[in-house]
Write a structure and sequence with these properties.
Elements: H1 2-23, E1 28-33, E2 49-56, H2 58-62, H3 65-75, H4 77-82, E3 84-92
Parallel strand pairs: 2-3
Antiparallel strand pairs: 1-2
């Protein structure tokens, strides 16, 4: 059961990666699952992810930070509603 849960999580993180790279010109993207860091928090739910995006993108750096975040949030809109509880976005210079 643990192995299948890890596999599901890995597939989901790849799905997030694919959605973003399909819609935005990204040179490098890392999707980090930080869910384990939030286990004691008040609104923690094991079926919801706490993700961190580490992005290197000339395109996203060419627009305002607000616009870049809005584009990312728009692409992940359904995921944010259903599967993601918290999303940290780090756009590297």
């Amino acid at each position: 059961i643990l192995y299948s849960k890890i596999l599901l999580m890995k597939n989901y993180l790849n799905e997030i990666k694919n959605k973003l790279t399909k819609n935005i010109k990204i040179e490098k993207l890392e999707v980090v699952d930080n869910s384990h860091k939030h286990k004691g928090h008040r609104f923690y739910r094991p079926e919801k992810y706490h993700l961190k995006l580490k992005i290197k993108s000339l395109y996203l750096n060419s627009i305002s930070r607000l616009k870049a975040h809005q584009e990312i949030m728009k692409i992940l809109e359904d995921d944010l509603r259903k599967n993601i509880h918290a999303l940290e976005i780090n756009i590297e210079k």
